[in-house]
Amino acid sequence: MKKAKSFMLPYHAPSYAVTIFALVLAVAYCVAFFVILQDMPDMVARHWSAEGGFNNYGPKSGLYPVGIIPLGIAVVVFPFAWILVRKDCTPFAHILNGISLFSTCVMILAAALILHQPG
After folding, report:
1. What is the mean pLDDT of each run of 10 residues along the chain (119 residues)?
2. Rounded to an integer, what distance in angstroms lies between the CA atom of residue 60 and that of residue 75?
3. Helix (H) or strand (E) holding 45
4. What is the dihedral of CA 51, 116, 31, 100, to 10 degrees?
5. How many beta carbons lie within 10 A of that of residue 97, not counting itself?
6. What φ, ψ does residue 56 adopt, rounded to 5°?
């Protein structure tokens, strides 16, 4: 009789940790983004020119996707990455987690530029 394999094997722990970290980072970024955005004026800079100055202003609700997109990607990726680790397909799980972490980091950089308002 074949013994059932435990899905939480010790050598899978780093892969599960990366999967959880990608989700936690996206949630923390989303919360921090909206806390900071709450203190911004109603009209904020939304686009910058090649010279480095802002050339488009609009309501701060136009910035909501910058905070929501990484969380959405992380929520979609999390169950797939978890299942892939469980099925011993960790390279594919690492690719998915990499996509999630990359999108979060890119949005953090974009938010740092956008939320640093002049004046």
Report:
1. 59 87 96 91 80 82 92 96 90 95 94 73
2. 24
3. strand 43-48
4. 30
5. 25
6. -145, 125
